[in-house]
Amino acid sequence: MKTLFSKFLRPIIFFLMIKVSFTTAFAQPAVDPIAPLPRALMPAVTLATLPAGNFLENIWVDDDNSLLITNYLTKEIIRWRATTGMTVEGKIDGHPVSISKDSD
């Protein structure tokens, strides 16, 4: 005497497994979001290096084309200029989570 599982449920589960694998095999390919972008890239250039223990998170391009960068672990805002390199613009009490221009 067959059990309920082997008589009724096993064929249903087997059918569902085949259905899932068949559907997955013929699924639509993922669209590559950067495919239409130009492929000619500028070469990478190292602007500055910092020792271990720094976590640079947010970047803001200021009006004078300098970069304002938040350093999460040291709680600093760093400014990078092409002429002077990296300087600490200021220390803050909490961990910086974003950066933007003041609206005033």
List the topology elements.
Blueprint: H1 4-25, E1 56-61, E2 67-71, E3 76-81, E4 85-91
Antiparallel strand pairs: 1-2, 2-3, 3-4
Explained architecture:
The chain has 104 residues and is an alpha+beta fold. The protein has a domain at 56-91. 21% of the residues lie in helices and 23% in strands. It contains one helix and four strands, in the order H-E-E-E-E. A four-stranded antiparallel β-sheet has the order 1-2-3-4, with no helix packed on it. The longest helix has 22 residues, at 4-25. It is extended. The N and C termini lie far apart (83 Å).
Query: What is the ordering of alpha helices and beta strands?
Result: HEEEE
Helix content: 10-25%
Kindly state the number of beta strands.
4
Mean pLDDT: 77
- Report the principal-axis shape: extended
Strand order of the largest sheet: 1-2-3-4
Alpha carbon gap, first and last residue? 83 Å
Low-confidence stretches: none
Could you describe the largest sheet, including whether it forms a barrel? 4 strands, antiparallel
- Helix-strand makeup class: alpha+beta
Query: β content, as a range?
Result: 15-25%
Alpha plus pi helix count: 1
Radius of gyration: 27 Å
Which key phrases capture this entry?
single chain, 104 residues, alpha+beta, four-stranded antiparallel β-sheet, 23% strand, extended
What is this structure, in a nutshell?
The protein has 104 residues and is of the alpha+beta class. The chain has one helix at 4-25; strands spanning 56-61, 67-71, 76-81, 85-91.
